[in-house]
Hints:
Helix content is 28%, strand content 22%. With 253 residues, the protein is an alpha/beta fold. Helix 4 packs across helix 5. The model has no long low-confidence stretch (mean pLDDT 88).
Amino acid sequence: MKQAGKFYGIGVGPGDPELMTLKAVRTIRDCDVIVLPVSNRELTEPLLLEQNEMENRAAGYLESCTAYQIAVQTVSELKEKQILFLPMPMIKDKEKLRKIHARGGAEVIEQFLEKGWNLAFLTLGDPTVYSTCMYIEQMIEQDGYQVETVSGIPSFCAAAARLNQPLGEQEEQIHILPGSYEAGEGLQLSGTKILMKTGKKMGQIKEFLQGSSQDICLVENCGMDDERIVRSVEEISEDAGYYSLLIVKDRKR
């Protein structure tokens, strides 16, 4: 490993700041720079700013970063940290994404690691579950730098706890499906089906679930101030937000 700084991919949990781990809090406090992905297409180049340098546009990036807004409620030191904003548009083209993660993410972060700085990339939930953070972390590790993943409570575990229901019992299988892609076949699997980030595909998913004999529950913005719970297909809105999670379970006989 190169004698340089260290990169941390940190999960801040699903939304309730009290669900952040002690390790996440300590690591954020100890890091020199906080890394935040920005999906706003107005940001085309990486941007490093001190908190007191935040202009209107950059302040808007902070406000729209859910992971930051969760963490800052528990880690007051975040308000004093340097912030590195990385342009990370939400697209599905794998080759384009790879180039963005490399040039706009890993290569930029490595410049700061070479200075001996430690960087913390904040991500909602857990970094290992459908997270941009892991793509960048793997690239950095392949280039010989130190990395560490700090686990966070994933949204589906928090949602199940919020509903006071188990995700898996005895031999019951658990399937995690990316709701923003095709999930129709996955919904036919036995056991518990978890659809994450269902957002724009909600209309198609609702159509597929109409008349289903399964137990269906949607938790939107779990642990946040605008949390919403819906327990029937008919009540699910087709314009449900990005942080909408569906739990579909085989009905007990």
